[in-house]
């Protein structure tokens, strides 16, 4: 089985490069299951119902998110009706699911969304949340985690702590792809951060002038999504059909 996990899709340029490439990515790489991080889909923050439908019409099985998921009030109106749109499980009391189990190719695949505790908005302990989740002893063959966090150290430490329990672990949120994709000692497929799917010549997706103005002056300016040439960042995780263990993880940028 092959799983495609795509990094934070940012605004219209991210949606367009995703749409342009998803069909051939699936066909050329014989992809069985697709996960995207959609928390920056709609104008750079959160995801509208129309854009949720856009993903479901374009081969996406599960949509993960992060700290921006509720920045669009529309999400509150539909997230309880869309179990495959996740919010971080350890986010303080809020609607929506933190994980979902779906069946594909006779495999039960659990996708779990978590958010980091370091330099992020307050949330429940990610370790306690993970331990509580594991104590449920849910039945699944494959466990995929999108860990939405700020620091590389927090992502690496968490993945190593649950190495061998998690099938595939990807970090999101920083929008900068890391070059450390590998199988951890006990077999978890790992990458610190997938990176962003959005405009290359931007400041993590936003118009450079807006970010520079704020850094120079300290004054607030409404950030606008950048325009221009975009890049899609993702990984392909291959999983053994018999053992349900990760065989490889491959980073791709388009």
From TrEMBL:
This is Metallophosphoesterase. InterPro entries: Metallo-depent_PP-like, YmdB-like. It holds the Pfam family YmdB. Fe cation 2 binds at residues 39, 67, 148, 173. Fe cation 1 binds at residues 8, 39-40, 175. GO terms for molecular function: 2',3'-cyclic-nucleotide 3'-phosphodiesterase activity; metal ion binding. It comes from Mesoplasma melaleucae. NCBIfam families: TIGR00282 family metallophosphoesterase. The keyword Metal-binding applies. Keywords: Metal-binding. The active site is at residue 68.
């Amino acid at each position: 089985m092959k799983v495609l996990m795509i990094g934070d899709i940012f605004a219209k340029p991210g949606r367009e490069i995703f749409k342009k490439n998803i069909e051939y990515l699936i066909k050329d790489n014989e992809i069985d299951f697709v996960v995207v991080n959609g928390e920056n889909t709609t104008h750079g923050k959160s995801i509208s119902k129309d854009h949720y439908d856009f993903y479901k019409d374009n081969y996406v099985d599960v949509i993960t998110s992060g700290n921006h998921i509720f920045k669009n009030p529309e999400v509150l109106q539909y997230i309880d009706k869309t179990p495959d749109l996740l919010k971080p499980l350890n986010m303080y009391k809020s609607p929506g699911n933190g994980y979902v189990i779906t069946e594909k190719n006779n495999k039960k695949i659990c996708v779990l969304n978590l958010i980091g505790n370091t330099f992020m908005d307050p949330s429940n302990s990610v370790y306690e949340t993970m331990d509580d989740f594991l104590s449920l002893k849910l039945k699944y063959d494959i466990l995929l985690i999108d860990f939405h966090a700020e620091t590389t150290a927090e992502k690496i430490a968490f993945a190593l702590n649950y190495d061998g329990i998690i099938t595939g672990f990807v970090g999101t949120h920083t929008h900068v792809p890391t070059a450390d994709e590998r199988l951890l000692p006990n077999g978890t497929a790992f990458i610190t951060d997938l990176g962003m799917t959005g405009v290359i010549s931007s400041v993590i997706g936003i118009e450079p002038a807006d970010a520079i103005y704020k850094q120079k002056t300290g004054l607030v300016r409404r950030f606008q999504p950048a325009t221009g040439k975009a890049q899609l960042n993702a990984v392909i995780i291959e999983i053994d059909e018999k053992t349900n263990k990760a065989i490889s993880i491959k980073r791709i940028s388009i």
